Amino acid sequence: MRIDVLGAVRAFRDDGSPVDLGGPRHREVLARLVAAEGRMVTTDGLVDDLWTDPPARAVGALRTFVAALRRALEPDRPPRDPPRVLVTEGPGYALRLPREDVDVHRFQDTLARARRNPDAVTDLGTVLADWRGPAYADVTGSPWAQRERTRLEELRLEGAELRARILLDSGEGADLVAELGAHVAEHPWREPAWGLLARALHRAGRQADALATLRRARKMLVDQLGLDPGADLQRLETDILNGSVPPEGARTAWTGHGVRLGPRTTVDLARTLALAGGDALVHSRRDRLAAVQAAESTGDLSLTARIIGAYDVPAIWSRADDPEQSRAVVAAAERTLTALGPDGPADLPARLLATIAVESRSADLSRTELQRAQQAALQAEALARDLADPALLAFALNGVFLQSFTRPGLAAVRDRIGAEILDLATRHELPNFAVLGRLVRLQSASALGDLDAATSHAKAAEQLAATTEAPLVSVLTGWFRARATAARSAESGGPTAATAAAHYRAAEDALQTAGMPGLHRGLFPLALLGLRLLHDRPAPTDPHLDWGPYRPWARPLVLLAQDRVEEARATLAAVPEPPRDHMQEALWCLTARAAVRLGERGIAARAEAALRNARAEHAGAASGMLTLGPVARYLAEAEACAGAG
Q: Could you write out the DSSP letters of every residue in 159-195?
């Protein structure tokens, strides 16, 4: 089986014969599952993607499309055998095919390989030739498809430029002049493309034409954008004039994805990719730092400040995916802020301060760093309000939200922040921040145990995700629905604990490829522990569970479950104070539970004091992704233990 979406959507059997996929809706369902890259897409999400205003029987129609696709894709499957290609998973569907059998996945994987290894240039040329037109060309009028087309077109252009660069670096490329000339004519704002065309002309012995190309690029950038060419183009012009262009066989230094992009181009690409999730999210973080470093190397403070502040990608989690990189960005922002001083454009300090607040994730900070980040958040908010810039204020409020975990029990405060972000985003058409506002409010309602309100925010976030670069939303809302199932499993007549565990497992599977290790590590074991506590069962003791950053707080309960009481007592005595993040209530509750079980009155009293202001909240539910049950339950136990004797 082979599926192609780089052009019109089509499928072929192993013998090369085409598969009749049916009508436009059938092809769109298949295309949407291809775009999910093996992840489950909920039924509700598919309905919202297929119809702007879903009809009353939309779910039934969707099931009909899926059934027809299954017959087309696996015509010889016996009626009672489960599907192997288009499978049912949790509350939705997923496509199960090897990545090499789907042209868009093959393209992305080959591009990633060529970024790392120039020897893959031949394969890169092959997959670039596979493009038959815009991706998902026959899926018209669908926001999700337009979003994917935009993302993939950016990758296609990057791939074309990377291939040209590799060939030029290896001593070939004189025959690229016509191809690169057409590329530049179609995409005149891509500075790297101008440099590649000039190099190809020079390689073909056309030095005068190469210099004329660079001067044409300079004139266009200055006249139409008010920008001077980036350092790479300026350096190339000087090299050609001096006759010092890299000789054949030499390889220039590569940055970012393997393409020497200027900082403006790089940060714009990184910002776009950050919203796509998965490998794209990982690459975006790397490219963002490359852009910052390239901007700093120019010595232009204003450019550096704008490059640092341009990455206003909404952030929802209080633990960084790459703490070292976040610290590097914060350090660059602080250096630039100090160097700017009181002069310069008024918005730059606000953007730098907001960046410091957003990148300084509270779980990773010392007390001094935390205080500095909280101060930066408040200063950014005040400056943004004075400037009356809605987008800047939304970005600053994102920082305020991430620094709002100063103590347990602040869900209501975060809900007010989320409500303001959502209001700003709705009134001023900031769709990515509208998603953020919904997710903040989902987390806050979850923390307060209001599952109806949280569900409403989850649905609204998923609807917004259909028109924004936000495929990660369904991953987060899938976890919320698992959290809700877990809570209902403790109620009379609710689902079983096994059902809740299966929902958590499905959510975990979806998160594995999302590119968010700061969120992912330890989440699934903590969710299972919370589920067991809801049902008054001992902690899970599977040695293969990766508790990640939550291990110190879970360990005493795991040891108790193994009847290793004295080890549990010693471990509990060494447990640190939880970090000020989404999980602080949960970790204090784990400490309280272990202290109660071991009769450690002093530790129980410390946990009781920390949790007192969170009495109305649910432990772990501030994450919107799991729950240990009401804090009041753990608080009562801790109070009784602390007061005993």
A: HHHHHHHHHHHTT--GGGHHHHHHHHHH-TT-HHHHH
